[in-house]
Design brief:
Elements (H helix, E strand, L loop, with lengths): L1 H7 L4 H7 L6 E3 L11 H10 L3 E6 L2 E4 L6 H9 L3 E5 L6 H14 L3 E8 L14 E16 L26 E7 L3 E4 L4 E17 L5 H11 L18 H23 L2 H11 L7
Antiparallel strand pairs: 1-8, 2-3, 2-4, 4-5, 5-9, 6-7, 6-8, 6-9
Length: about 290
């Protein structure tokens, strides 16, 4: 966790991981200055590489997704108040690749590095939450972030997130405001509502990562159980039952038997060792 330690400076890494990571927002002023050496020539390089996804966003609206624009064309959008968002910037520039590789190795997860270029007095998105754990490094200018606890859909996953996130239903009282200036950084846990309002022409880097969740245990369990002939027995979908009650009773007994076997297996030393080993393997995000 070399880069995270650099960002934390003299603050305790263990304390950050225990108290904040996946739990509470955290910000640190002036401790990310060594990551602010980006400029418009870097943006031009990322766009010209054609490996990253270019999105054109303006004040809460997605104007163009997967935009195929030259740097000059993209800059025209920027000059008219649009945010240039470059997703997977790590594919197009060594500076972003370094960030991605360090976080990926540290947390054993794919990492998406995004670059935001936003003109003054505009913002990219409205109130929203992300499924990623997000580290934001303010490279140029300033942005004010308002962050709010999510009680509507906490701990979101890609498979659970809804298109309409229903911020209007949120009633949580915990709200935090952070002004990021050049060289400051901010951590926003997965699921926390936030909105960023540009105070002056802004460029920032967003590092998003998704460490494994408890749901991943189920994915590993499927592979583990498939090695047991007991679990490879076909379900009797061809069986004829006298009525719905008989069918329900049959599967009730069968599922109790399977449930007991699952409980025994996930409590075994063999399962635990293999599961822990799988957690250390990087996820293929292709």
């Amino acid at each position: 966790m070399k880069i995270l330690k650099q960002l934390l400076k003299d603050q305790s890494l263990d304390k950050f991981l225990d108290r904040h990571f996946t739990r509470l927002p955290f910000s640190s002023p002036a401790s990310a200055k060594e990551f602010t050496d980006l400029n418009w020539s870097d943006v031009e390089e990322v766009i010209n590489q054609g490996k990253s996804i270019l999105r054109i966003v303006k004040d809460g609206q997605m104007i163009k997704d997967y935009a195929e624009l030259s740097y000059v064309q993209a800059l025209e959008y920027y000059k008219s108040g649009h945010t240039l968002l470059l997703k997977n910037a790590e594919l197009s520039h060594p500076k972003f690749k370094r960030l991605s590789e360090d976080f990926s190795k540290s947390f054993h997860t794919p990492v998406d590095v995004q670059l935001y270029c936003t003109p003054g007095t505009h913002n990219a998105f409205g109130w929203h939450y992300d499924v990623e754990e997000v580290f934001i490094i303010q490279v140029k200018g300033s942005k004010q972030y308002t962050i709010r606890q999510n009680t509507i859909h906490p701990n979101p996953l890609v498979v659970s997130i809804q298109k309409d996130q229903h911020f209007e239903l949120e009633k949580s009282e915990m709200m935090i405001t952070v002004l990021l200036k050049e060289g400051d950084w901010l951590y926003i846990p997965s699921g926390w509502w936030h909105i960023a309002r540009t105070q002056e022409e802004s460029m920032h880097i967003s590092v998003g990562l998704m460490p494994r969740s408890a749901v991943d245990l189920a994915s590993f369990l499927t592979t583990y159980l498939a090695q047991d002939a007991f679990w490879r027995v076909r379900m009797p979908v061809h069986k004829t039952f006298a009525n719905a009650e008989e069918e329900f009773a049959f599967y009730e007994v069968a599922l109790k038997t399977l449930g007991k076997d699952i409980q025994e297996k996930i409590s075994s030393t063999d399962f635990l060792k293999k599961f822990l080993s799988s957690l250390k393997q990087p996820i293929n995000d292709d």
